[in-house]
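From: lab user (bench 3)
To: helpdesk
Subject: output format question, protein + pyridoxal-5'-phosphate

Hello, I'm new to running complex predictions and I'm not sure whether the block I got back is the full result or only part of it. Here's what I submitted:
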Amino acid sequence: MSHISRIDLTRDFKAHRDEYMKAIEAVCEETAFSGGRFADKFDEEFAPFVGTAYACGLNNGTSALHLAMLALGVGPGDEVIVPANTYIATAWGVSYTGATPVFVDCTADTWQIDPDKIEERITERTKGIIGVHLYGQPFDFARVKEVADRHGLFIVEDCAQACGAKFEGRNVGSLGELGCFSFYPGKNLYAFGEGGSVTCDKEEYFRHMTRLKNQGCDRRYYHDEIGYNMRLEGVQGAVLSVSLKYLPEWTEKRRKIGLRYHKEITNPLITMQVHPENTDPVYHLFVITVPDHEDFVQYMADADVECNMHYPVPCHLQDAYKFLGYQVGDCPNAEYMASHCVTLPLFPEMTEEEVDRVIALCNAYGKE
Ligand SMILES: Cc1ncc(COP(=O)(O)O)c(C=O)c1O
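Helpdesk reply: Thanks, we reran it on our side. This is the complete output you should expect:
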């Protein structure tokens, strides 16, 4: 039986090779490699896709979170609420500014930041909340906003895993003050290398982030503040303009597979993420929990099916944040996720037979 990868990007390249190569060639012909026309063109397409006035293309999603914090004036002494169940980069942006991430547990069923647990972590230093639309599933923006508004806090959305997902009919990235995206290969909208973006409606944020990513200057060689080199590469902009056209089709395919998994995987040993009715998830990662995740991943590997884990250590217990003094038991739901999660294969080009096989293996697990 043939191997099933957790994700296989070669199928997309094979299907659209000519279009991708033409786009890359156009950049080479103009040598518009760093920033430039092709990167700007993608920004102009991405903002209306998300539903914001601006998109600021960047070199990766970690920079997006970093610049979002700087645009909002976060700095040393400040605190920003971050979910414990996320990829670590959500917290890096806060730490890079000298501020402190304050980790909050996820709910037991949606696995997203728990709006009921935010308030108890707010202090007079808290400046805002970063919510993460984890695994492609929008977090409960409305309830997080109630808390944020009560305390005068900003909300930044980490949309790295949820490009095209909707909360109450609105695109993620257009809900909060700023939306941060990653186009890392394997994300549901991905570049042929690194890429990221911050979306927003306020011109002031856009101008500031544009200056920061360009070494702190609006006019070449005149540096108004300490800046960074965080520009989106031209080749990545050109590739992303091609991929963005296909994103709705890819999302539809992901949804079909995700819904099949939800309906047809009936093994009581397997628990799936709850998708509230007011959300349209994009099934970036299909995460389940099982009693013994190491055993499950090995069982699938024995059948030549690759699975992995998102994520095996919650942010608050990472060694990098040991100095903050968190203990096991501080975020029990996130800790449960870390020790029970498995990510099943899911990508738009999966064949029906491959999906059938994953479902059959999941249903047979624990019954041999
Ligand atoms: C939730 C989340 N936030 C931030 C990032 C960081 O993005 P990048 O890898 O492009 O820096 C990622 C992706 O890796 C992510 O999954």
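A quick orientation on your result: The longest strand covers residues 126-132. Let us know if anything else is unclear.
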